[in-house]
């Protein structure tokens, strides 16, 4: 059962990007992020109640709370940039860059937390992942100066903020139940995303959101929540290293569905890059 849940976690995580892309063709990405966060928040707190973690809220110390809040801000920034990148770029180009957060996370973990065990394996996996990402996003068109290439900036920022999310969360969640920590972080994301919507005056556009796109945005949030639920079950009952590796391979699901739904084909070089990425992920996850 735990293996099936791990596979479902990767499947739903892969669908998240597809549903999100479908929901932001006309809808502003900031509004989509804010709406989606409501769904994710409900899912996060459902997990808290399922594992009976509410009783530990009063046990959170000030340091943990501060770092959880900071992690929430980093998460919010990452999601906002990620949705913006998806709104103007191809899914099978944006997602690989977003996965590059793993590279920065590994490097920061080595520097800040002295996680040097299996260092050679980590560095090898990181190198293969970096090569794969470069092969998947580098093409002739990317060398042209175009407004459409702004997606690269947002995708890179998304990855950077995602990496800091992991580092800050690691510090903040050390003495906090993981699901409760996630729920607290999501509250921060919700406040941050809606503050941006109102600050930019975009709340006026809520009334004119395309109903079909609204459904896709909600589905994106539900997919994220479902992924978290399956991932938690798999982690609790299965082999952690295997679960993590399967979850990170959600990129395969995203690439397959981006071809089916949007017709985004991979060229030979991009396919080789995908193989490098998958190999790097497996080396880091299973080799450690």
Number of DSSP-assigned strands:
0
Q: Number of helix segments?
A: 12
Give the low-pLDDT segments.
Answer: 140-147
Mean pLDDT: 84
List the secondary-structure elements in sequence, H or E. Answer: HHHHHHHHHHHH
- C-alpha-based Rg, rounded: 18 Å
Oligomer: single chain
Give a concise summary.
This protein is an all-alpha fold and 288 residues long. Helices cover 78% and strands 0% of the residues.
Describe this structure in words.
The longest helix has 27 residues, at 62-88. The protein has 288 residues and is an all-alpha fold. The radius of gyration is 18 Å and the shape is globular. The protein has helices at residues 2-23, 29-50, 62-88, 91-99, 101-113, 119-137, 150-172, 178-199, 211-237, 240-248, 250-262, 268-287. 78% of the residues lie in helices and 0% in strands. α3 runs antiparallel to α7.
Keywords:
single chain, 288 residues, mainly alpha, 0% strand
Secondary structure elements and their pairing?
Blueprint: H1 2-23, H2 29-50, H3 62-88, H4 91-99, H5 101-113, H6 119-137, H7 150-172, H8 178-199, H9 211-237, H10 240-248, H11 250-262, H12 268-287
Helix pairs in contact: 1-9, 1-10, 1-11, 2-3, 2-8, 2-9, 3-7, 3-8, 4-6, 4-7, 4-11, 5-6, 5-7, 6-12, 9-10, 10-12
């Amino acid at each position: 059962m735990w293996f099936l849940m791990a596979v479902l976690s990767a499947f739903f995580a892969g669908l998240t990007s597809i549903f999100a892309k479908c929901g932001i063709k006309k809808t502003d990405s900031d509004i989509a992020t804010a709406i989606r966060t409501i769904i994710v928040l409900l899912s996060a707190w459902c997990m808290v109640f399922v594992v009976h973690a509410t009783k530990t809220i009063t046990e959170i110390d000030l340091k943990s709370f501060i770092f959880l809040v900071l992690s929430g801000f980093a998460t919010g920034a990452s999601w906002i940039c990620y949705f913006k990148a998806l709104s103007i770029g191809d899914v099978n180009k944006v997602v690989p860059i977003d996965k590059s957060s793993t590279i920065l996370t590994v490097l920061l973990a080595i520097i800040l937390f002295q996680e040097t065990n299996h260092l050679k394996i980590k560095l090898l996996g990181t190198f293969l992942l970096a090569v794969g990402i470069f092969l998947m996003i580098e093409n002739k068109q990317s060398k042209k100066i175009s407004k459409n290439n702004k997606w690269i900036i947002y995708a890179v920022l998304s990855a950077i903020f995602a990496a800091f999310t992991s580092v800050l969360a690691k510090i903040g969640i050390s003495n906090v139940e993981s699901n409760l920590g996630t729920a607290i972080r999501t509250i921060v994301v919700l406040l941050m995303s809606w503050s941006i919507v109102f600050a930019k005056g975009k709340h006026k556009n809520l009334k004119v959101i395309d109903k079909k796109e609204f459904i896709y945005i909600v589905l994106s949030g539900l997919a994220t929540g479902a992924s978290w639920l399956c991932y938690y079950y798999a982690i609790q009952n299965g082999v952690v290293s295997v679960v993590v590796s399967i979850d990170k391979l959600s990129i395969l699901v995203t690439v397959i569905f981006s071809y089916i739904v949007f017709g985004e084909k991979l060229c030979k070089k991009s396919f080789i890059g995908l193989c490098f990425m998958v190999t790097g992920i497996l080396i880091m996850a299973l080799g450690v």
